Amino acid sequence: MHRMSSTSARAHSSTFSAGSFFGQGRDAKKRVNKLFAIHAGIMFTLGLLSALFPEVLVYLLHHSSDGFHSRHEGGTARVAFVTMRVFGCFLLAQAYLLFVLRGGTDGNMRRAAVQSYFVAFGLTTLALARAQLTEDMPVRLSNWLVILSFFALTMAYAWFSFFERISVYELGR
């Protein structure tokens, strides 16, 4: 039976515990793919809703006191619905991109996607928080839940952007 020296045993146990805690290696690679999968699922759902039923999301974001507006109205409501539909198509395309990236093996491409989403969600969080705090907007729980959701995505992508090595991105599924 092979016996380790006390120094190498300590190094092995500390490496193992640090790796287990931070999810190094294969577990971290699975977490990147899980983050991509969850994010793609959310974007697919919101994209489909935005493209097919823009009035629902416009209502949820705007909280109009006069209820739902018809997507067939003219003026500002029509512009809002068209904008929401275009945004929905963009979300659907990004969901597809993330789904494909889950199987990719190019570490630089996967890392660039993670860093891009970190920046995008960080800026979105700041923009939504600024709108909530500085503009004449009613304080609603749903608004803060949206802001907290974007903040959570920012933190998830920040973890992989700043604390994981490039090797985490080099494995597909």
Sheet having the most strands: none
Which blocks of ≥5 consecutive residues have pLDDT under 50?
Answer: 1-22
Q: Helical content, roughly?
A: over 70%
Terminus-to-terminus distance: 37 Å
Strand runs, count:
0
**Helix/strand/pairing class, anyone?**
mainly alpha
Query: Strand content of the residues, in percent?
Result: under 5%
Number of individual domains: 1
Tally of individual helices? 6
Order of helices and strands: HHHHHH
Mean pLDDT rating: 76
What form results from the Cα inertia axes? globular
Cα-atom Rg, whole angstroms?
21 Å
Task: Describe the model.
The protein is an all-alpha fold. The protein has one domain. It is 76% helix and 0% strand. It contains six helices and no strands. It has helices at 6-22, 26-52, 54-62, 75-102, 107-134, 141-162. Helix 2 crosses helix 3, helix 2 runs antiparallel to helix 4 and helix 3 crosses helix 4. The radius of gyration is 21 Å and the shape is globular.
